[in-house]
Target: PIN domain-containing protein
Amino acid sequence: MIQPGTPVVFDINVYLDYILAGDGSWPLLPEIPPTTDNAAADAVSLAFAGTFRLYASPHILRNVARVMMAAGQSSRTTVRFAEAIAEMCAFSGGAVLDPDVRDRAIGDHEDNHILSLAADPSVDALIVVSRDRHLLDLGPAWNGRLMMTPRDFVRRVVSR
Model:
């Protein structure tokens, strides 16, 4: 179970799995509680349920946009999706913040951005949601933060 207001950070791959997966539902969101086979889409839909506070960073938004464009998405769709992420953060009580990025001695330099956002004092995320092995291999908890796959996150949120 996740307490209301719990601060959460989604890795870039969560947003990309939602919008780029063949079973993605953009621009519609799955129902709450989620009922799709796309755990990333279900996790994103839960941000609108007020169950947790979602945080992102300009780095996350830029990289989501970069990968979407490389995958052939239109500029319009890419901009709208980045705006939707920012709106999700605001709606959930979270925000888009630009943390100081520190080297966290992890195998993938890009993951330093996710961990730095989670550890930023104004975020202090309890949960990082990702399917990235570098992050998940940190163990179930990294510096007091849970590392969870989208599917595990959705199960935990809806198991109230």
About this structure: Residues 17 and 40 are 6 Å apart (CA to CA). The mean pLDDT is 87.
